[in-house]
Design a protein that fits this description.
The protein is built from eleven helices and 13 strands. The chain has 365 residues and is an alpha/beta fold. The protein has a six-stranded mixed β-sheet, with helices on both faces. A five-stranded parallel β-sheet has the order 2-1-3-6-7, sandwiched between helices. Helix 1 crosses helix 5 and helix 8 packs antiparallel against helix 9.
């Protein structure tokens, strides 16, 4: 109901004389068609309560009480404003009525007719205020929910962007930028606390020929297969990354040389088993793909920074390629740490063909 509209009032008054006086007073103030009269609780129950703006009900009805009517009205429409009127004032009754949801409680003494329109206007204003507050509350709740949804979407988008910025799109491993950041953190921590750290550079032997003969899609599948082998042999603290093309890199914090050798051997063996399961090419030949590895540890190589350690592992990988491929080379010459290309290396051929691993891929220690 707008402020300018004529209110629709339901008057439940069993006394005919009082009903006539109240109806006349209200009509003179609000308009001729503002009051719908009835005399009983049953009569009030037959009204279309949704089309009523306010109810004025006597406390003593022939078939019940004003409180009973109040309960019934509020069950059907919890927001309806109800004014209860009593012939004699009763403090406890008034408190009980207000506590049960009545907007107001009035006493029908002689001058009450003069104030009745003002009382009705006051309670209609209260109803309008409550309705507006409820609307605003629902609007705020809806807005907060929209903000929550937008924040969730934004957080998801940020996570996706962060993942895209740090992940190689083909293999799902850390990209070069993310790997270097992780290396900086691991190197600093291991160097500070005197722990060992291992870096393993991996390059596929025969990948270009495989890619050329079987196509780029098969080559991508092979790289993805290697990435799964690397992930299966990584602890939560380890970092596996794609360094570029068919070159991969492993970072093993708190891992000594002996353990790193076992990890490298296990990776090579499991990759060889996976390759042996690939289909033959058009000429009936099995794929000839293996891996070479270069390994450098913090304690044995004594690098000054992560970049130098990667250069050492890369130099060891180069020596593995020169020494016949399908093998691991460990960088061991700490005296030549600043000139890695001239450093000596220890070649360790990788076994081929390897034995089949167990069904569950073992994790590094």
């Amino acid at each position: 109901m707008s402020r300018a509209a004529v209110p629709r009032l339901l008057l439940v008054e069993p006394n005919a004389e009082s009903a006539m006086l109240m109806r006349q007073t209200l009509r003179e103030h609000f308009g001729q068609d503002c009051v719908t009269p009835c005399a009983t609780l049953a009569g009030a129950a037959e009204q279309d309560i949704d089309n009523i703006d306010l109810v004025i009900a006597d406390m003593d009805l022939p078939d019940g009480t004003g409180l009973e009517l109040l309960d019934r009205l509020l069950q059907d429409r919890p927001d309806i404003p109800v004014i209860l009127a009593a012939s004699h004032p009763n403090r406890d009754e008034a408190l009980h009525a207000i506590a049960h949801g009545a907007y107001d409680y009035i006493c029908k003494n002689r001058p009450f007719l003069f104030t009745l329109p003002i009382i009705v206007e006051k309670n209609l204003a209260m109803w309008r205020t409550k309705a507006e507050n409820l609307r605003l509350q629902l609007q705020v709740t809806h807005s907060l929910e929209e903000v929550r949804v937008k924040n969730t979407q934004l957080e998801n988008a940020v996570r996706q962007l962060e993942t895209a910025a740090s992940t190689d799109p083909l293999t799902g491993l850390a990209n070069r930028r993310a790997f270097n950041q992780a290396f900086e953190r691991c190197f600093s921590a291991c160097d500070r606390y005197g722990h060992d750290l291992t870096c393993i550079m991996i390059d596929l032997d025969g990948f270009k020929a495989f890619n050329d003969s079987r196509g780029h899609q098969a080559g991508d599948s092979l790289l993805t297969m290697l990435s799964r082998v690397l992930e299966a042999n990584c602890r939560r603290s380890d970092v596996a990354g794609r360094y570029g093309g068919d070159e991969f890199i492993l970072l093993l914090p708190e891992t000594d040389l002996a353990t790193a050798r076992l990890v490298a051997k296990r990776v090579s063996d499991e990759f060889a088993v996976a390759v042996s399961g690939l289909a033959k090419d058009a000429s009936g030949m099995l794929p000839s793909v293996s891996m070479s590895m270069g390994l450098a540890t913090l304690r044995h190589a004594n690098p000054e920074n992560p970049e130098q350690m990667i250069a050492m592992a890369d130099h060891a990988l180069y020596r593995a390629k020169q020494s016949g491929r399908n093998r691991m080379v460990v960088y061991t010459n700490a005296a030549d740490a600043k000139s890695a290309p001239s450093a000596t290396a220890l070649p360790t051929p990788l076994s081929a063909p390897p034995p089949k691993p167990s069904a569950a891929l073992a994790k590094s220690a």
